[in-house]
Amino acid sequence: xKVQLSxxxxxRDDKFEKLILEATQFFAKELMSVRMMNTIKIxxxxxxxxxxxxxxxxxxxxxxxxxxxKQFRITLDYNRFTxxxxxxxxxxMIHVEQIVSGRLQYRYWKSDHQLxxxxxxxxxxxxxxxxxxxxxxxxxxxxxQEAIFQKYYFHGRKQ
Length: 159
Description:
The protein has 4 helices and 7 strands. It is of the alpha/beta class. The strands form 2 sheets. Strands 1-2-4-3 form a 4-stranded mixed beta sheet, with helices on one face. A 3-stranded antiparallel beta sheet has the order 5-6-7. Strand 6 (114-119) and strand 7 (122-126) form a beta hairpin.
């Protein structure tokens, strides 16, 4: 797995950067097989201003339908506590695994020019019509992020 990290302008914190890269590797190893990990590239953008007030992080990839997706961009909000950034990273890495495994797919339909979501092989309809807290991939990510964060924070961190 290749990971590239981009920090906000005029922000240099080697310890924080190392922590983010280390956590990304840990979460990937917890969530994916080595074979799966070896096929992906992740760019992590830690930003001060690009997210709206209610969003702590996002993951984006090309919308390729059933084709395997290998490149991801995770954006994290720099204006949070470090532990919250790590929890958000765990959440977004769960989404990366969902997409890499093919359980979560997004497709643009030519017929209506809208983004549709497919979860575990079932077409769920237009993504924007599914309430955020009812999206099964979000329910799973929120349900698992704390456990994986705790595992990293209390057991997996290099001292």
